[in-house]
Specification:
Layout lengths: L3 H51 L16 H12 L25 H15 L7 H7 L6 H16 L3 E5 L2 E4 L11
Antiparallel strand pairs: 1-2
Helix pairs in contact: 1-2, 4-5
Length: 183
Amino acid sequence: MPSVVGLLEQRELGARRRVDELREEADRIQSELAVAEREWKEWAIACSRVGEVLAPAGESGQDHAPAEGTASAAEEQTAKTSQVPDAAKTKSQVPMWREGLAWLVLSVDYQRILKVLADRARLRQGPLTCQEMAAAFGMDVVPARVEALRSKAKRLVARGWLAEQQPGRFMLAQDVAGPGGGS
């Protein structure tokens, strides 16, 4: 008969995995939302510009008040969402890696993981485990800290920033370079 503690640990592990999955899905949706908002803003600006160009000559001097759905309205909406302080944002976004994407798009925690792995790659050292990363960051090597790092590292693997050739051992993905750029 399994122990009560063992059963509780199994349930806790299952719940933690579910939370990690939901966080990853929320991050993916946040990234897609940011791209969609940017695209919407660009189209709204394009519509506004075309409207200005096609406006009769007598109307060109008139003040163009922002209407709902125009570029100015899009800029106002973007300004409202970008004024949320970083501390109030619920999760960091980890975009899919693509050539030329700088590390600066990532939060400091993710940049720190990439930096330590880039240093190891530069020194031709092998991949790191999350326990080794925690020690390198000066953290207590306790399960909570290690699991938090593992969650971040797995998210970076899923987004193409890191590679996990052996289970639990992380390194920079093949084309990811130093902090200045993503290629």
